[in-house]
Amino acid sequence: MQEPELLRVEWLDSNTHDGWHDPKAQEYSALPISSVGFLIFKDDHCVVLAPSASWGEHYQVCSTMTIPRGCITSITKIG
């Protein structure tokens, strides 16, 4: 099996604020995230990365992350 592409994906994630707080004193914004991993799957709706992969005799991946396309701000190929 051919080694999958290694990518850096910049994306915006949601975040929450637990407990009681003054909404006027709180800063609300999406959280910028940078994720690096092997490209496992992509389509019009999402990109799936895995930080670890074995593509030898038994192809396996570990800890996949699915990132919605609407949240992605940039994708850069590494290497």
Structure description:
The chain is an all-beta fold. Helix content is 0%, strand content 53%. It is built from no helices and seven strands. A hairpin with a 5-residue loop joins strand 4 (52-54) and strand 5. It is elongated and about 55 Å long. The mean pLDDT is 93.
The separation of the N and C termini measures: 18 Å
The radius of gyration computed from the alpha-carbon positions, rounded to a whole number of angstroms, is 16 Å
Strand content: over 45%
Poorly predicted ranges (pLDDT <50, ≥5 residues)? none
Give the mean pLDDT: 93
Structural class: mainly beta
Profile the largest sheet. Answer: 5 strands, antiparallel
Instruction: Report strand order across the widest sheet.
Output: 6-3-2-1-7
Question: How does the overall form come out from the CA principal axes?
Answer: elongated
Q: How many helix segments?
A: 0
Helix content: under 10%
Compile the SSE list and pairings.
Blueprint: E1 6-13, E2 31-42, E3 46-50, E4 52-54, E5 60-62, E6 65-68, E7 72-78
Antiparallel strand pairs: 1-2, 1-7, 2-3, 3-6, 4-5
Quick summary of this structure?
With 79 residues, this protein is mostly beta strands. The protein has strands spanning 6-13, 31-42, 46-50, 52-54, 60-62, 65-68, 72-78. A hairpin with a 5-residue loop joins strand 4 (52-54) and strand 5.
Main attributes of the structure:
two-stranded antiparallel ribbon, mainly beta, elongated, 5-stranded antiparallel beta sheet, 79 residues, 7 strands, 53% strand
